[in-house]
Design brief:
six-stranded mixed β-sheet, 30% strand, globular
C-alpha cells in the first residue's frame, strides 16, 4: 500500500477535487473538477477536468483517464503528457453527458483520444 | 456501463461525499465524509464514514469497503448491512491513520471487521 518512496498510496477524493493540472512543460492546463466513480465495481473511471470555473449547465469538461494523472509534489498538482492545445482539442462534454446512461460514447471517445484502454473493457 | 435497470453506473465523487448511510432497518447510521482513492491503480479503496461532523483532528472514522455500499434511490442514501451498534463497535481511525504511509494495518483491520477481502490483496 505504499509506493517505492514510502509515501502512502491513498488519497482522499475531496483532496483530488480542485487540484491543478499541468502539462510536462509546467503550464497549468486545467483543474480537476470531479472524479467519476463506478458504482458497481471499485473502479475510478476518470478525472473530470475543466478550466477552473464552477460546474455549470452547458459547460464542457474533459474525461481524463485516472492512470494518466501523475501527482508532482513540487507543483502541488497533477502532470499529464498533453499540451494545452491537445487538451483544448480533446473531446469535451457536459457533466450530464459524462454521467448519463448514454455516457458510454462520450467516455469511449475520450479514452480513444488519450489512447488509453478503459479498464472496463 | 449501465445497470440492468438502465441507469448509469457512473457517479461523481462530489455527489457521494455527504450522502447519508442507512442500515437495512432504515436507520441512519452515518454519513460518507470522503472516498479514499488509490493513486497508482484505478481502485476505490473505501468510503470514509463518520457521524456527520466536519473532518477534524482527533475525530475517528470508519473505512467501509466500497463494495458494501448499496445506493437506494428512495432513501437518497447508501444502505449497508450493519446495525448502528455494529458500526459503533467497528475499528475507527483518524483521517491521518487511514491515509498515512502506515495506514495498511488500519485498512486491513477495517476490511477484516466487515469480512471483505481488499481488492489490493
Amino acid at each position: 500500500m505504499t509506493t517505492h518512496t514510502g509515501h502512502t498510496n491513498a488519497i482522499r477524493a475531496s483532496r483530488v477535487i480542485g487540484t491543478d493540472v499541468f502539462n510536462t512543460q509546467g503550464e497549468k492546463i486545467g483543474v480537476i473538477e470531479d472524479v467519476m466513480l463506478e458504482k458497481t465495481s471499485n473502479g475510478i473511471m476518470f478525472a473530470v477536468i475543466g478550466f477552473g470555473g464552477f460546474l455549470g449547465i452547458g459547460e464542457k469538461y474533459h474525461a481524463i483517464p485516472w492512470s494518466v494523472l501523475d501527482y508532482e509534489k513540487s507543483r502541488a498538482g497533477y502532470v499529464v503528457p498533453f499540451s494545452q492545445d491537445q487538451l483544448k482539442a480533446a473531446p469535451a462534454y457536459s457533466i450530464e453527458e459524462l454521467t448519463g446512461g448514454d455516457g458510454t460514447s462520450a467516455r469511449d471517445a475520450s479514452f480513444d483520444y488519450y489512447k488509453v484502454t478503459p479498464y472496463w473493457y
